[in-house]
Amino acid sequence: MFEVKLPQTSEEDLESVIVFWHKSEGDPVKEGDVLVEVQTEKAVFEIEAEESGVLQEILVQRGEVAGVGDVLAKIATGAEISGTEKQADPAGEAPQERTVAAEAADPQFVRASPRVRRLARELGVDLSSVKGTGRNGQPTEEDIRQASLQEDVCEYTIVPFSGIRKTIARRMSDSLQEAAQLTETAWADVTLLDKERSRIQDRPSWNDLLLFAVVKSLSAHPEMNAHVHEDQIHQYRKVHLGVAVDTDDGLFVPVVRNADELSLRELKERVSELVEKAKENRLATEELSGATFTVTNVGSFGIQFFTPIINRPEAAILGAGKIETDLILKAGELAERKRLPLSLTFDHRAIDGAPAARFLQTVIHCLEEPAKLLEEVLAK
Description:
Blueprint: E1 2-5, E2 16-21, E3 28-29, E4 34-39, E5 44-48, E6 53-58, E7 65-66, E8 71-76, H1 95-105, H2 114-123, H3 141-151, H4 163-178, E9 181-189, H5 191-197, H6 206-220, E10 226-228, E11 233-235, E12 241-243, E13 245-247, E14 250-252, E15 255-256, H7 264-279, E16 293-297, E17 316-320, E18 324-330, E19 333-347, H8 353-368, H9 370-373, H10 375-378
Parallel strand pairs: 12-16, 16-17
Antiparallel strand pairs: 1-8, 2-4, 2-7, 3-6, 4-5, 6-8, 9-19, 10-11, 12-15, 13-14, 17-19, 18-19
Helix pairs in contact: 2-3, 6-7, 6-8
């Protein structure tokens, strides 16, 4: 008898919710067949059969939550198959037809992340009664809390540290305790960049331009493109850029691998793809790990300077705020300029203030000299 167990898909022991079984009890199974779709706090993935045989028993049903190592099902193999395997589907249905029929037979099932499902259970909220406002109508944490308040008005709402919120809390706390973090801030004058940006077909966003400038700058400052460990600093030749994305399910940091090999247009397309997948909770595990430097942008919230926290073991993180139009004194005269606030947090154990400042200066120079930054795009 072969046991189908929930594998560990990330560094954390995340719980997962069973989204859909592609096989039913008694179905024949071949090695490599997709058995079940599972959703963690970060991504959705499929579990394939590692042995051929017959799916004898499903132990964790659709909508239920399982932990890493839990047995999800059992596959009968070899001599155990006798009397177990279905000779034929009595309804003559194809697998796809059975899937549709199973969906229709379970109208109460609500697709939701393990964290949202757990919160609903803790607050006593029936998921099927909640009108979701998230992506594809999925319920969010706020939807669950509102439903709970409507059922039982009280003076406060209990919000447990669980799921991705618990993961973020632990990582941020560990980061501040284990790294000597310092933040440097500066303005970047993006007036000329704004003019050049308007000339580009399929205009890139401000964030696209910032990410491109950061990638260019990291190539010139390898000490910033690094991981810091207890007794070693790993400086990376390739830039794997982390891009912080705010979603209904929490903060995700998908990774653009080999970002230093991409043109501005290619970087823009890849970031757009990853952001969309993050918002739909479709990121694969490998798309959420391995960043060598991260950029986080809170400009859309009206924030200027702030103190971003390093995503360990990375050596640094760059934060961007809201672009504002100001009057500044230039050559003795008032001039209207667009300025972008930048906040660079770095691990002082590995990087001193001066090298960090030089890197920040390089990023600013890239943004303030658009002809050089955009020469490849403007030449076309």
